[in-house]
Amino acid sequence: MNEIFLPFAFFRGKIIPAELAKVSIMTNALQYGTGVFGGIRGYQANNKKTFHLFRLSDHYQRFLSSLKILNAKIPYNREKLVGLTLELAARNNSKTDFYIRPLAYASNYELSPDLSLLTFDFAIYMIPLGEYLPIHKGLKIAVSSWMRINDNMIPSRAKITGGYINSALAKGDAARMGFDDALLLTSDGHIAEGSAANFFIVRDGVLITSPRNADVLEGITRRTILQLAQDLGIPTQERMIDRTECYIADEAFLSGTGAQLAWIAEIDGRIIGNGKIGEISARLQKLFFSIVRGNERKYTSWLTKV
Ligand code: PMP
């Protein structure tokens, strides 16, 4: 993975060199995971001259919802967040595809994790980013022995920094065992999602994904894929998925800002379909990449130019 930052970050109300955007070890968020974050991709347009931020405003809507769940506030509304992000992206002037990481974090040195005492700072940094998961070869996935956090433990629909210890355990163990990613089950044994991506299967021509109340993060890409499938006339269902259904599915894939649309060849050693990318996955993947590069007029409202 890439560890090079783009040169500028937004920090304490200003754009400054990214290497100077630093916090104290006493920061509450560092102790307790009291932060929320986002992840937005910037894609080079096919004309090579501009970049497109994908569903920027939708990402900030979820970001603000995550803060609301924590009953935390920052002094920016959605329009302002969009504006700050565009300003930073223009300043960084990336030459390659990139990723934007907005972060709101409890910045005071309060010893207690008491949310009623905390104040939140807002920061953004950017990194160059190509593939996060391979998209041309099929993924090898394992169902994790770690269960997905549930809404009454750490709200799963909020992108809370502390919640990612759940992803870290599942992903780390899967990687150590030679898998590309893990699938996490809900506490009642249904498929929730991947470590940092939503999960889809195809059975008998129907595209199926876990519902929003299956302890999933409500992915922007998930919503995008469901919409594209509907536009292509592919029937969709949002419903609970049994573990064994994914073994016998015709197709399976992960979706996310990082993952994009990454198809799955194998789950727990069972080959999915014929082990090659399925027809519906391939159609959706092709359309998705065409959209983000700016080739599909119908979907340009999802793109913000930098
Ligand atoms: N689930 C989790 C746990 C994630 O971290 C992500 C990545 N943000 C997703 C799903 C996919 O969400 P999105 O499509 O909005 O990136």
From TrEMBL:
Keywords: Amino-acid biosynthesis, Aminotransferase, Branched-chain amino acid biosynthesis, Pyridoxal phosphate, Transferase. InterPro entries: Aminotrans_IV, Aminotrans_IV_CS, Aminotransferase-like, B_amino_transI, BCAT-like_C, BCAT-like_N, Class-IV_PLP-Dep_Aminotrnsfr. It comes from the Bacteria. One of its GO terms (molecular function) is L-leucine-2-oxoglutarate transaminase activity. GO terms for biological process: isoleucine biosynthetic process; L-leucine biosynthetic process; L-valine biosynthetic process. Pathway: Amino-acid biosynthesis; L-valine biosynthesis; L-valine from pyruvate: step 4/4; Amino-acid biosynthesis; L-isoleucine biosynthesis; L-isoleucine from 2-oxobutanoate: step 4/4; Amino-acid biosynthesis; L-leucine biosynthesis; L-leucine from 3-methyl-2-oxobutanoate: step 4/4. It holds the Pfam family Aminotran_4. Its EC number is 2.6.1.42. Its cofactor is pyridoxal 5'-phosphate. It catalyses: L-isoleucine + 2-oxoglutarate = (S)-3-methyl-2-oxopentanoate + L-glutamate; L-leucine + 2-oxoglutarate = 4-methyl-2-oxopentanoate + L-glutamate; L-valine + 2-oxoglutarate = 3-methyl-2-oxobutanoate + L-glutamate. Acts on leucine, isoleucine and valine. Belongs to the class-IV pyridoxal-phosphate-dependent aminotransferase family. This is Branched-chain-amino-acid aminotransferase.
